[in-house]
């Protein structure tokens, strides 16, 4: 179990480092938070899987450790805050100046329809 625990910790550190190196702008929470989440997720996922399988399949435990670590680390990703990405708005941008709406006389902006 000691060797597996070290493998789980190593997997967590690798997943955390890979996330920070490959997409640093997606993780604004900080390096310690990202690496710590990956490490703890790998350890918990691996240990739970080890006890679930009674230690019979260490390869499966290691694979599940990597999957759980990757999934929980991806929860921290914030691609909407990455540099160079604009937030996706559902509404049209506000009109500047005296631009008139093509369907309304006088360019008046109405929020509600009156009967």
TrEMBL record:
Keyword annotations from UniProtKB, A to Z: Membrane, Transmembrane, Transmembrane helix
Chain ranges passing through the membrane: 6-26, 33-53, 59-77
Region called Disordered, residue ranges: 88-115
Protein name, UniProt field: Uncharacterized protein
Domain of life per record: Bacteria
